[in-house]
Amino acid sequence: MKRTGAAALAIAGGAGLVAGFGTDQILTWVRQPTFTPAWSLPIVLGLLALACLYFAWPVRQQLKGKKPGSVDAIRAFRTVTLARSASLVGAVSAGFGLGLLLFLLTRPVQPPVGSVTVIGVTIGVAVVLVVAALLAESFCALPKDDDDNPHATES
Q1: How many structural domains comprise the chain?
Q2: Among 15, 118, 148, 150, which is most buried by a count of CB atoms within 10 Å?
Q3: Are 96 and 15 in contact (CB under 8 A)?
Q4: What residues form the membrane-spanning segments (predicted)?
Q5: pLDDT for residue 100 is more than 50
């Protein structure tokens, strides 16, 4: 299984940026207030980052041989799946927040400090989520088996 690449994260972040900017643009066109995320969003993103690391740590300990027993491949796979999806959620959230912030900062009026603050915190926590998820994904990288190389010669 390949690791999450920078291209996938960049595409997800770009899509989030367009969606965030577009959301505020459409809300402005229909004369509605711009979107400001609730404070619960960065809290949930931070909890997701902690969950990724929490589930990946025992797998890492078993891979390093610091914890007795064999590595549970199913648990490692589930943790990698969680980490991959969390990294994409973090990239989309960071991009969405950047789109919202970009929209607010390009307006001729001064944006409210509370809106800029919650958007900035959301962007920061989303970036932390991406880093934590990529770290958790690397914790669960199983070593290659001899059977993984199809071109190996049999002895």
Answers
A1: 1
A2: 118
A3: no
A4: 38-57, 85-105, 117-136
A5: yes
DSSP code at position 107: S
Residue 150 lies in a domain: no
Tokens representing 98? 């950047």
Angle, CA of 150, 152 and 155, to the nearest 5°: 130
Residue 37 maps to a domain: yes
**Tokens at 118, concatenated:** 């919650």
3-state secondary structure string across 63-94 = HHCCCCCCCCHHHHHHHHHHHHHHHHHHHHHH
- What pTM value is reported for the model? 0.86
Full domain range(s) for residue 73 = 6-141
> Tokens at residue 139, please?
């914790």
Residue 151 lies in a domain: no
Is 146 domain-assigned? no
pLDDT digits (tens, 9 = 90+) for 104-131: 999 888 888 888 999 999 999 999 999 9
